[in-house]
Design a protein that fits this description.
By secondary structure, the protein is an alpha/beta fold. Helix content is 29%, strand content 22%. The chain has one domain: Hexapeptide repeat proteins (UDP N-Acetylglucosamine Acyltransferase, domain 1), CATH 2.160.10.10. A hairpin with a 4-residue loop joins strand 14 and strand 15. Helix 3 packs antiparallel against helix 4.
Length: 179
Amino acid sequence: MVLERDPAARSKAEILCTYPGMHAVWAYRVAHIWWGRPPARLAARILSQLARRATGVDIHPAARIGRRLFIDHGTGVVIGATAEVGEDVTIYHGVTLGGRAMSAGKRHPTLGDRVMVGAGAKVLGPVRVGADAKIGANAVVVTDVPDGAVAVGVPARLTGRAPADDRDPVDQHLIDYMI
């Protein structure tokens, strides 16, 4: 999966040894299993904190994360307790999937399948980001993003449909603007 999504990745050995996002997800998977067993919740939190210190990625063990999550570079990524992340999602460094309130219940975002969240973006509150959507770098998303849409800016605004290829949504927005 990493070899497909990261052009800088040169080998499986390099990925296994040097990708902190992968290490954080592995630790999360164990912590999430422990979180489901109440006597082991303290151990789950301790493991998640050790992983945070080692990788710079903070994933709460209660979060729900689908298969093949790719966290590129990793440093500064925060995924809150009630966050839900679909399958084949790509998250870049400095992303926060966080809450806006300290109330009980669902307070973190839900990302659909194949979502891309650009570096430094913040997705806050119990919002839904639809499948195949793209969030531009440093965007602040506080409202729902429909399937296949591109959201950029502060606060984020929709700029159209996600490009069919892998171009950055901000670059695509600029191209669309210039045409």
